[in-house]
Amino acid sequence: MRNLLFIFLFIQLSIPCLYSQLPWSQLDSFIVKRHNQANNQVVEIEVPGVLPLLFRMPVATISPTAVLLDDVPAYSWSFGCANTVGAMAAGYYDNHGYPGLYTGISNEGLMPLDNILWGTVNINGEIRNQCPLSATMLGLDERQSYGHVDDFWYQYHHYGPDPYISLNRNRHTDEDCTGDFMGSNQSAFSNADGNTRFFFLPDGAPLYDYTGNEPNQRDGCHGLRLFYESKECMLIENYTQLVAGMYGNETGFTFNQFMEEIDNGRPVLIQLAGHCVLGFGYDQTGQYIYLHDTWDYSVHSMVWGQNYAGMLHWGVTVLRLVADYEPPLADFTASSLSICAGEMVQFQDYSLYSPESWDWSFEGAQNQTSGEQHPNVIYPEPGVFSVSLTVTNAYGYDSKIIHSLINVGEPCYCLVNGNGEVFIEEMRFGNIISLTNYSQGGYSMIENLSTMVYAGLRYPILVRVSSETPGISKCGVWLDWNRDMYFEENELIVLDRAGAGLYTGIVLVPLNSVTGRSRIRVQVNNDSFFCACGVCSGETEDYAFMIADVQLSKQMIVKVFPEGLFQHGPGLLSTAKTELGNVFPDDIVDVVSIELTEAYAPFTKVFSSHNLALNNQGLVLMRLPSSFNSAYYLIIRHRNSVAIWSATAIVMEGNNLYVDFTTSITSVYGQNLLSDGVHALIYSGDINQDGYVDVNDILNVESCASAFQKGFLTEDINGDGLIDAEDLIIVDNNSARHIVVQGPD
Fold it and tell me: Is 265 a residue whose pLDDT tops 90?
């Protein structure tokens, strides 16, 4: 229920070994009373504890990537944790442009960064640290009248009437210390000595400046607002909120929001089960937060949303201040938080206090900065991006950063549907190797598969379909070369029917293609036309592809001769065929894959390019990013041959590389090539691609041959479109030679 409220009674912890003995893993175990107020159920929780006498948490190691606010005070526990932490925050602001929060005489009227100079005091046998910004006292900082400690403190965990009540005197007016306003230690607010209350909504929504239990109980968050307002400091907002995930909520305060507060110069009260600390820094790696815990003067750390000294992190208390001299307060909205790549977002400035200049930063945008007040921004690529705005006027500046604000999905292309009369079961294009079944509605976007292409290069494409009707079914692909999110007629390539259920073609990337992420749409249907949009028979699949910048790449030509396709007379490769003719058009005979690995163990693969065109001269042309300029092993894979490794790691120097594996068996690792006296050939016969030519491969070929199978199949070693004795002889011979993959790994 959204309006369910929880009251938390915070007091100091006992030493952590006590916690380990108690079942305090969840906040619910602290519930002692439930109150009904109109439509709200209020749950009161009391946490017993005591300031640790000896135990201290380890000092944090500040990582190089950490972001911390400067000059954040660290005060040792002074008559309550929450008011001490509130004093730390107030001390920070007193040192950073909000003068007058501390009104004492020490340090020339500027709140010190620790409370050492005020020493300790003995109250009824207890030695307590003093801090006038947390709890005032007669004589402390030359105070001339009773203060917080005199009127409200008797002894830690004392629940009886406060001293001013027992002594039948008037209490002092709330002033000068956070404890006065937060209700800390005050029996009039049902608080024992050391305690402060906070309220929150259990659905994860922020609870702004809660006053619903006044005058019987005081919300510490509301009390902090009263403190600042008593010092003539304006607050834009103040709230307490569960962290995301607590009680299963999905709308709670997140680590990203915590980073935003720190990036904007605002420390945050971190609420723990039984304690309160001040968060003032973060490290995005590991989601660490840096804090002062009131137990010493050191910097400590914890993981967001986890435990600190055995205490569960359940929430935050946030306060946003505006200075008297009114520098601007940054704020903005976006017209949409979720868009498609290539779309525009309109940003609207809603900053307060008359900003005079605007400095926007748009991560991932086409133009990543702007000085306009209300900019329009295009996001060309998918991703999740942050936005920041810094506004300035004559009195100062303010920044607002919202992490992961804009969610950019794949480009939004027109919708298409089908009925599945004929459907796609396999698609191969570059590094896209997709085996699919019919998608409900006749359309699917395969987001996890993509490939990279370069202008001027040829790329084979192969599509296998099911339930085709010969003479009626047809297959085509659109490639959005200009990245305008439209599939135009001149971007359609009609594939040839190369065999039963097999459609192939060659994609030549236009020289005027626009670099960046784009989309390929593959369709098979039984209609008389192709329909890039709308409703048609059959099925359509979309994939992403990247049009890479040729200027940032290098060319590599590799020459290989797969044994089964090699013609010894002309010294050329024969074209792989089906019962209908050549599988691929032009001089393309088949496809291969090339991989690069590191030159040292464990020989990690660093680059791969699949389904590359192999022409009849055995040449394979590919491009790879120019950043590959070290030494790498090359691995060449062919669909029914034994993979080969280069004999040594090849240094990728220059922008044009040529590697020939056809002239000498020494060019590959382990001399693992077949020599005919003139040429070096890749051993064929590894049908199942397990690295061996063995009886399993023989059985595969025998099975297909006995069934008179034909087509573009891996069992067709010599590529003539028939699986027969000629294929079996090659596999049998290489099995007898015990041919296996040989490499440095």
Answer: no
